[in-house]
Design brief:
By secondary structure, this protein is mainly α. The chain has a single domain, classed as MetI-like fold. Helices cover 73% and strands 1% of the residues. It is built from 23 helices and two strands. Strands 1-2 form a two-stranded antiparallel sheet. Keywords: Cell inner membrane, Cell membrane, Membrane, Transmembrane, Transmembrane helix, Transport. InterPro entries: MetI-like, MetI-like_sf. This is ABC transporter permease.
């Protein structure tokens, strides 16, 4: 009898695995049609040019002198950007989450604001700051790699603060205090006690920052042009200007491999870091030993505030005088007979569609990967699914956008003229952010609460409504806010897919920059200020929800 029972035990596990795959079928279908199919279509044009596999042309591009320069610049600029982001971001995470002082919430808001700004706006902000006649034009950094690296640090500081900050906030202070009582100095306490406890979150943040630096598009396109190109901008050049699909396919495939490795590293770091305590330690008042940390935070705040202040000043000046001429011009004709206000309306409507798509799919995925696993097979399946849905995080938006054009152009998936094409692409870009916002919250729910509700007669939908929804509704609103802000400023895929007569605001800003003259540049600055203000407003609303660690990776 015992043997018979043992023989039957695997069957429920098989049934649960099949049920898990069944629940994942819908999200996997969406991922397959709107991500894997376009990306594979783009790669297919380069690797199967005549219907048969031929990698010689794609591999040949990797030996070109320019390609090697692009690869080297991508690697070293991303490494430098990551190192400087950690140098400023770790003290900022400590001060913003570990210490108590007036203006703490405002500091958090300032540190996170750059991450939701459109990359085209970030590029234009630093171009305006460092150009001849700009606030820091005398430094001679315009059209230099240092301008790109500074913009990368500006953009990615929030990733370190949001990833490491909550972990630092919940860290038990007693081991560090004991080490200090035994005579260890602040640096030794940091090295031997604090950093080992934070290693997982720091490695996770570093890997994601490197990923974002290596795949930055809009800011590198504005600040670097053709002289300082990264893999992302080179894919854009090969696709749109040179029509070298083999070269673009080779770089896209190389980028995809790097993304997979970095995401695996980040996932492993999060797994080793363990869950974040949802009952943070009470912040303490600053001490004299915290002065160096405050000095680095001051540098980080200056890096954020000075470019934004220069953007405001540039938008409100015309012909060397303070004026609202650039702002008034927003309601008149812009590039290609399209008014900036019309492009702003297009951006908002498109971002709203992208938001409900990303939030709906992201919630389904988060529920799927956070349910309790019964056995190692089911646990590995959920880990694989979680990794699959993170792939859009780092795959070139240019590759995705062009892939849409070459794969979704024939029945039954002829979507090139569909108004949902751009929102779908933007939703895929925002999807990983939504998932990473919701997964920690849902994973922190004690499964025994669901079991208790079920034992009292509640059905699955009632359990979902009374247990999960009660906890996740604030993070869900925050995820929607982040998705809206990201979609509002998405430029890479949108630049391929948007109709010529209905551009979004980031696309119109880039078009304005392509026209010479102070008039177009001034309108682009004013339009960037409006877009930055709108994303800042969305972020302020998200911050008011007071969701700990929201948006972390």
């Amino acid at each position: 009898m015992a043997r018979r029972h043992h023989a039957l035990t695997p069957r429920p596990r098989v049934g649960r695995s099949l049920a898990l795959l069944g629940l994942a079928a819908g999200p996997l279908l969406v991922l397959g049609v709107f991500f894997l199919l376009p990306v594979s279509g783009m790669l297919g044009l380069g690797l199967w040019p005549d219907g048969s596999f031929d990698a010689s042309g794609a591999l040949a591009v990797l030996h070109h002198e320019r390609t090697l320069r692009v690869l080297w610049f991508t690697v070293w600029s991303a490494a430098a950007g990551t190192a400087l982001t950690l140098l400023l971001g770790l003290p900022a995470a400590y001060v913003a989450y570990r210490l108590r002082f007036p203006g703490r919430r405002l500091l958090r808001l300032v540190l996170v604001l750059p991450f939701v700004l459109p990359t085209v706006v970030v590029g234009l902000t630093f171009d305006n700051l460092l150009a001849d006649g700009g606030v820091l034009g005398g430094l001679g950094l315009h059209d230099s790699p240092l301008a790109i690296i500074a913009a990368l640090v500006f953009f990615n500081l929030a990733v370190v603060v949001r990833t490491v900050g909550p972990a630092w906030e919940s860290l038990d202070p007693r081991p560090a205090e004991a080490a200090a009582a035994l005579g260890a100095g602040p640096l030794r306490v940091l090295r031997d006690v604090t950093f080992p406890a934070l290693r997982g979150s720091v490695v996770s943040a570093a890997s994601v920052v490197f990923l974002f630096c290596a795949t930055a598009f809009g800011l590198v396109l504005v600040l670097g042009g053709l002289r300082y190109a990264t893999v992302e901008t080179e894919i854009y050049l090969l696709t749109t200007e040179l029509f070298d699909l083999r070269g673009a396919a080779a770089l896209s495939l190389l980028q995809l491999l790097v993304v997979v490795v970095l995401l695996a590293l980040a996932h492993r770091a999060r797994a080793h870091a363990g869950p974040v305590d949802r009952r943070p330690v009470t912040p303490r008042r600053p001490r004299p030993a915290d002065v160096p940390a405050f000095a680095l935070v001051g540098a980080a705040v200056a890096l954020i505030v000075v470019p934004l202040a220069a953007l405001v000043a540039g938008a409100l000046r015309s012909d060397g005088h303070w004026s609202l001429a650039n702002v008034r011009a927003l309601r008149t004709v812009g590039d290609g007979q399209i008014a900036v206000t019309t492009a702003l309306r297009n951006s908002v409507l498109t971002a709203l569609d992208a938001t409900w798509l990303a939030v709906g799919l992201g919630l389904a995925i988060a529920l799927l990967v956070t349910r309790r696993s019964h056995g190692p097979v089911e646990r590995r399946m959920r880990a694989v699914l979680d990794g699959l849905f993170m792939l859009p995080l780092g795959v070139s938006a240019v590759t995705l956008g062009f892939g849409f054009l070459v794969t979704l152009d024939e029945p039954p998936l002829d979507l090139r003229t569909s108004p949902l094409l751009v929102p779908i692409a933007q939703a895929l870009v925002a999807l990983p952010l939504v998932v990473r916002t919701l997964v920690p919250v849902l994973a922190g729910i004690d499964d025994r609460q669901r079991q208790a509700a079920a034992s009292l007669g509640a059905g699955p939908l009632r359990v979902l409504a009374t247990i999960d929804v009660a906890v996740v509704w604030k993070p869900l609103l925050a995820a929607a806010g982040f998705a809206f802000a990201v979609s509002l400023g998405e430029f890479g895929a949108t630049s391929f897919l948007v109709r010529e007569d209905a551009p979004t605001l980031p696309v119109l800003i880039y078009r304005l920059l392509s026209h010479p003259g102070a008039h177009h540049y001034g309108i682009a600055l004013a339009a960037s200020l409006v877009l930055a203000g709108l994303t800042a407003l969305v972020l302020l609303l998200v911050e008011r929800l007071r969701v700990p660690g929201v948006g972390g990776f």
